[in-house]
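Cross-posting from the chemistry board since nobody answered there.

I work mostly on the small-molecule side, so proteins are not my area. We synthesized coenzyme A and want a rough idea of how it might sit in this target. Sequence and SMILES are below. Is it possible to get a predicted 3D structure of the two together?
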Amino acid sequence: MPSEKEAGVPSSPAGFAFRAPVATDGPVITALISRCPPLDRNSAYCNLIQSTHFADHCVVAQQGERIVGWVSGHRPPSDPASFFVWQVAVASEGRGQGLAKRMIKSLLARPAQRGVTSLTTTVTEDNKASWALFHSLARDWNAPLERAALFERDAHFAGAYPTEYEARIGPFDLKKIKEAQG
Ligand SMILES: CC(C)(COP(=O)(O)OP(=O)(O)OC[C@H]1O[C@@H](n2cnc3c(N)ncnc32)[C@H](O)[C@@H]1OP(=O)(O)O)[C@@H](O)C(=O)NCCC(=O)NCCS
């Protein structure tokens, strides 16, 4: 796994270190997500599978011994040229320092993401911070962001959850992005 520096991501003045998760991080990741509403609390088992089978597509940010950030993702088998961001969680004390953006950029800089030409995610209408994050990434990458309803309140959630809109950023050229990041 390349270090943050090797991956072309600027090192952080706040001393965050990025790395792939391991199974023993599972309980801490589950607890971090539970402190980051409105994220869904998926099962502890789900976070363990992400931290093992999908470790190449997930990242934790550590400050000292403390895990303060988490991004889960994968490359959908049906759309392998895209990188899907599942959840982004930054502990309240880590917010506002560009950590979410840098975690996502570090994931895309990994060798496992060779061939990726777009990023997708889903966001509810009212999650302003999340929309700001993905619009900011689209601006940095000089790529369009398209939005369309994907999982709808009634048809897909039986009325229990708000509609999730897919945001698709791309196409972009990862090689050029890495060069620009220096
Ligand atoms: C959303 C979240 C991950 C942002 O983490 P962060 O590390 O503070 O975000 P960053 O510092 O990287 O900010 C990225 C961009 O989003 C903007 N942003 C972040 N939080 C914001 C907020 N609450 N309101 C408006 N804009 C916000 C930043 O200003 C920045 O934009 P810029 O580059 O144009 O200045 C964090 O607030 C969080 O964990 N929230 C709860 C869980 C959640 O909603 N996750 C996202 C859904 S997957």
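Reply from a structural biologist on the board:
Welcome over. Reading the output above for you: Residues 43 and 118 are 28 Å apart (CA to CA). The first strand starts at residue 16 and ends at 19. Happy to explain the token format if needed.
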